[in-house]
Amino acid sequence: MKTYLFLLFAFFSGAVKAQKNFPYEISGTIDGLKNDTLYVFIHSDSPEVENPKTDTIILPAKNDKVFTKGSYPKTAFAYAQIGSKQSGRNFFTFIIEEGKIQLRGNVSSPENIRATGAPQNDAYTAAMSADNAYYRQRDVYWTKLQSGDESKPEYKKAEAAAKSVEQAQLKFRQQYVKEHPTLLASGMFVYLLPDQLPVAEFEKLYLALHDDVKSLSMLANLPERIAAKKNVAVGKTAPLFTMNDTEGKPVSLSSFKGKYVLLDFWASWCAPCRAENPYLVKAYQKYKDKNFTIVSISSDDKGDWWRKAIEKDGLNWVHLSDLSGAKNPVAKLYGVQPIPDNFLIDPAGTIIARGLHGEEVEKKLNEIIK
Is 22-110 assigned to CATH 2.60.40.1120? Predict the structure, then answer.
């Protein structure tokens, strides 16, 4: 889960406040880097923009050490890639800002490489360290849940403890944003919070951010997402859409009226999504003959990967996608970002729940389907 957070940070970087170029200096030691190269990418456009504008800083290493200095017009999140080979575990994130930025870590755990020495980086490093501590606590309980017996008291105790940690993490993020509206770390937390808070509460938190932080490219579509969230709040009628299935045939949400539908948003490359699938399979098998079905919307852009994941995970229900990746129009319509996410729709077409994860799907169905 810790790595997943850094994935979000890396791919949704952005810039703050155009201004006269400021000087920066990047130096440090990354054990195991040897004489390889560190590539630093700074995206100035929203992640939804095709071929976003990207500035690149190249840092050749010598005996694990890197050094460069230059100037840049705006404080920005930077995605640092170790070596030229792209993979899911060879990058880390820091902030380009005025001052001397010091990097320290090891190539064996890029997500733990830290940047310090300048105000925004110091704050970001401290905030992420505190936030990841909650993930470590949750991982302990989730490991027990995955290997435990649901009928035993120990399982219920671990489940309650995991939820307690999750709520504590949520409160930490909210309080951090309220206390530090000018820090880029707050922008990162706001990016992660939309589906964890009621829309009115989230909107208030977003509006409290300093304008410089709100101008982050990663937050560019939040006003649109807030509007979408208001349209898909519990109690609202689920917006209708039509999208092609795995065979290229159009399928409309309206064709499922009269059934309970779990509208599931996922992708084959999304590890947290794949981790949810066993729970969905279990719920589907139990309730598929009781006026319930699942419709999955994929944010994949590769058809083969999408179909192979469906087969491998045994997802024997309707699957839809236009293979446009993050630009999926149904995900936009429902204000979904990030994934996984889902909406439970009743037979009349009304949204009755959102964001059910793990055993929560089956428990909710057990409450409403007799």
Answer: yes
Q: How far apart are CA 35 and CA 234, in angstroms?
A: 54
Quick one: angle between helices 153-179 and 199-207, nearest 10? 30
User: Is pTM, for the whole model, over 0.90?
Assistant: no
CATH class of the domain defined by 236-368 = alpha beta
Asked whether 214 and 206 are in contact (CB, 8 A), the reply is yes
Look at residue 275 and tell me whether its pLDDT is greater than 70.
yes
Q: Are 88 and 110 in contact (CB under 8 A)?
A: no
Q: In the block, which residue shows the tokens 């003959």?
A: 289
Cβ-proximal residues to 345 (8 Å cutoff; 6+ apart), any chain: 238, 256, 260, 261, 262, 263, 351, 352
325: DSSP letter: G
Question: Residue 246: which of 166, 202, 184, 302 has the closest Cα?
Answer: 302
Task: Identify the H or E element spanning 303.
Answer: helix 303-313
- Quick check: 13 pLDDT over 60? no
Backbone angles phi, psi at 77, to 5 degrees: -75, 140
Q: State yes or no: pLDDT of 278 exceeds 50.
A: yes
Band (349; pLDDT cuts 50, 70, 90): very high
Structure-token pair, residue 298: 């994929």
Domain spans of the chain? 22-110, 122-219, 236-368
